[in-house]
Structures are given as C-alpha cells and as structure tokens.
Specification:
Blueprint lengths: L1 H20 L3 H31 L17 H16 L2 H5 L2 H8 L10 H33 L1
Helix pairs in contact: 2-3
C-alpha cells in the first residue's frame, strides 16, 4: 500500500519534470547524461571496492585509485544517478531501451530467436508500412495543393 503511494507520487513527479524539461532539450540531455555518468561511476567504484575487499589488492592501485574514498561512495553515486534518471524519466529507456520493452509487451521473439523467414516477413511488413506512409503523404500534399487553388 505505501509502496503504491510512493510509486504514484514518483510517477506524477516524473511526468511534471519531463513535461517541463521537454521544452528545453539541451538542458534535458545534459541532466540525463549527467545521471547516466553518475550511475555508471557508482557501479564502477562499487565493483572496484568489492574487488579491493575480497581480493585484497593491497597497495596496488585499482582503475580509479579508491584509497581516499569512503566505502559508500559507489553506492551513493548509484543512488544519486538512479534518482536523477528516474525523476527525468530516463532510467528504464536508457538502461534497457524502448524496443526491448515494446517487444516484450507484444510478446515478440528476440531477433536472435527469429528465423530468416520471420525476419524477412518483418522487413516486408515494415516496407509496406513505409509505402503506406508515403502514399498518405502524397495524398495529403495533393489535398493541400487543391485547397490552395
């Protein structure tokens, strides 16, 4: 029950933020890019800290030289990056992608699981859709020209 309320609150916040940021695409891209970098920085530092802890690399420097950073630096970066990406509505689409989500909802097979015939059928279907769009565009232009005259 409380999880649902928090989820709905976050969803409404995301909608508001996305609505405002969509009018400023450069700022939106900058915030999204910063969120991605902060998130992956946290993953990187957390992994290095785990490697340092379990495999005791000692004085040898890791890829980020974590000696001066607290243990919670990586997890905190993951949390900040995740929060930022969730608020601006880019978390799922950035890490998974729209195509994968849509294909899952449609219960489609992954491309590697499709046969050659299925892929050719999909390509033909896409070509038909493109041809239909071009036909609609031609008709619309003809209609606009008729209205201008």
């Amino acid at each position: 029950m409380i999880f649902k309320k928090i989820y709905n609150l976050g969803d409404r916040l995301e909608d508001k933020v996305r609505g405002k940021l969509s009018h400023y695409p450069i700022i939106y891209a900058f915030i999204g890019g910063a969120g991605i970098v902060i998130f992956w920085r946290g993953v990187w530092h957390t992994t290095d800290k785990i490697m340092e802890t379990f495999f005791s690399v000692g004085d040898r420097a890791t890829s980020t030289s974590l000696t001066g950073l607290p243990w919670w630096d990586g997890p905190l970066s993951i949390l900040i990056g995740t929060t930022l990406l969730l608020i601006v509505g880019l978390f799922v689409t950035t890490l998974i992608g729209n195509e994968i989500i849509i294909s899952g909802l449609k219960k489609e097979k992954k491309i590697v699981e499709k046969t050659e015939d299925e892929l050719e059928s999909d390509l033909k279907e896409n070509e038909e859709i493109i041809n239909d769009i071009h036909d609609i565009d031609r008709r619309l232009r003809r209609f606009e020209n008729d209205l201008k005259q």
